[in-house]
Amino acid sequence: MPRAKPASAPKNSPPVPAVKPSTPVWLKVEEIKPFPLAPCDAIYTQAAATVQQILGIPMPGFAYHYQEYGIEFCIADEDRAELGRRIMDRVADRTFTDRVVKTGLQTCDDMLALAEGFTRSSEFSNADLADRYEKYVALLGKSMGYGYLGNLLDYASDDVDNVLVAQLERRVFSNVADKRTAIETLVALTTPEQTTYPNSEHQEFLTLAMVVMENQKAKNALQKNDAAALPSVFAAVFPSLASAVAAHQKKWEWLSFLFVGPPKWTESYFYGLLVHAAKSNEDLAAELKRLQDQPKQILTARKKAEKCVADDAYFYAARQLAYLKAMRKDAQVHTYYYLDSFFKHLARQFGMSPTQARFHTSSELLAILRGEAETDAARANSRFKQCFFSTYHGKIQVVDGPAAAKLAQKIRRPQAPQTDQIKGNCACPGTASGTVKVVNTVEEADKVLPGDILVSYATNPELVSAMRKAAAIVTDMGGLTCHAAIVSRELNIPCVIGTKNATVVLKDGDVVEVLADDGVVRKL
Known about the structure:
eight-stranded mixed sheet
């Protein structure tokens, strides 16, 4: 619901200093599962300082309401509009956007280089591990601070999904009369041309699949065997191809790790994709060429769009911040993959489970490694069951049990529209019909079959495998710079985002038509 605007102060009266409430109103903006306490407690604590350095004003508080690895992600329902205005003012200068993106990407690289050392945690002393972890969480928060400006634009208003994109939409639709042309213009001017990690992986997989399909005996084996049996079959009969598949899996499994793993992209998973390719006779070369040509096609479409609407600093910021957001997310997932060895090492050394280790705070872990505190498995178990973590104007709070439940009751949870009509925004134009599969976790991804309509609260990197099989994507949340929007454009499939109620109205097995140009999904 829209927030009420404060009454204007009388003219010529002195400004009234803002008074921060001692207890904020927490606004739920997302659900995430799984989501550990550490290192995620450090993300927004550190990010707040980075955002203040970039924009000169504080970032609102953030909170996680945990219930068994799942969270309600909340922001303090204040200062959101002012942050949005400050970002809009700054991105009017392209050099500001360039600095943000350059620093954000470099921070991600630094974070990855440092985090890789956690795969050898047993080789470090506890003191060295503590120092490395402390530096890591600082870089994690810094990467989030730079890479989160696009998200802050998402949260700046209750009325629109992203204040920057909403402004650009108004400009495009006021200058372009034909609806389809307007949509194509908006997409062309807000789509980054840079290649993302999932796109790179898919291109490498297609190249590998083409090599495998050239071997007719290997193709026959794919058509006759189950994916689970194929690793051993290929190892015995086609050892060089088996090594190539194993190398690809090892290189890219991190993309499916998300926060706590384990990676879902096993060798059997990739053999399953090869089985599909062998049985469907998909034109792998054509798909590979489409992906390789995509950056050039985006630039060509952008030049065409410029004839309708000027490609100014705001369009530039929209696509650059979208690219940084995607790279930041994937870089963080990659570090969580590396960090898995760290938490397993802690579990072995201090006699607790990896999950219990993850439900100590980052500051507690540092104290434990430095010999300044003991582990507390009972408290970790209680936090796993339910806890409330918040950071608000420099104050950090972690409570569990009844106190957490009491705080959770005060969360403002926007209600889904009470209607069977599903209406959102077009992220990628087109039309598709198919069977609905509701997918909110990676465990649900396998139920998506080729041609299905993937419906999700909000997609994330580990759902990319399911998204590639879908005929269309529909989400409750997100704007034109969200994960679903970026991936749907890479895949060139219809996508409707920001419906608010698709996962409420639709269930597995429903047959729907997605009219992405109109932002409409209707049951058939």
